[in-house]
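Is this the right way to post structure tokens for a design question? Let me know if I should format differently. Anyway, here goes:
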């Protein structure tokens, strides 16, 4: 969310692009907070974080941390109390008993 606010407060030659990026970053953060389209939004956040590593204005440590978090969220998926869980149902992992143990 901080990156989105940073882009929105920026003024310069590419102000329109900064506004679009700012709103996209804030929208992605809100979608991740409520758990809506979690895997897709996390992959978009992951790609944006990787691309923003080339930007000198951002803190590199914070961006690396954000990239790691986005990758973890993309792989883990939404939580039990997310909007995705309400829309698509909870998924339960069933581990079958080993037939050899009896």
């Amino acid at each position: 969310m901080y990156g989105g606010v940073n882009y929105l407060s920026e003024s310069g030659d590419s102000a329109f692009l900064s506004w679009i990026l700012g709103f996209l970053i804030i929208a992605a953060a809100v979608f991740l907070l409520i758990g809506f389209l979690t895997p897709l939004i996390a992959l978009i956040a992951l790609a944006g974080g990787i691309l923003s590593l080339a930007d000198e204005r951002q803190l590199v440590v914070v961006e690396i941390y954000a990239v790691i978090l986005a990758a973890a969220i993309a792989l883990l998926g939404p939580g039990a109390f997310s909007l995705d869980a309400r829309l698509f149902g909870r998924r339960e992992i069933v581990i079958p008993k080993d037939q050899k143990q009896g």
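Format looks fine. Someone answered above. Worth noting: The chain has one domain: 2-88. The mean pLDDT is 78.
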